[in-house]
Amino acid sequence: MKSLVTGANGFVGSSVVRCLLEAGHEVSCLVRSGSNRNNLRGLSVEIMEGDLRDTVSLKHAVKNCENLFHVAADYRLWVPDPEIMYDINVKGTKELILAAFEAGVSRIIYTSSVATLGISSDGNPANENTPSSLENMIGHYKRSKFLAEQVALHLTNKHQLPLVIVNPSTPIGPRDIRPTPTGRIVLDTLCGRMPAYMSTGLNVAHVEDIAQGHLLAYIHGKPGERYILGGDNMNLIQILQIIDEIINKKINRIKIPMEMMLPVAWVMEKVAVATNTQPRASIDSIRMAEKKMFFSSDKAIRELGYQYRPPVEALKDAVSWFQNNGYCAGPI
Question: How far is it, in rounded angstroms, from Cα 160 to Cα 212?
Answer without folding.
Answer: 25
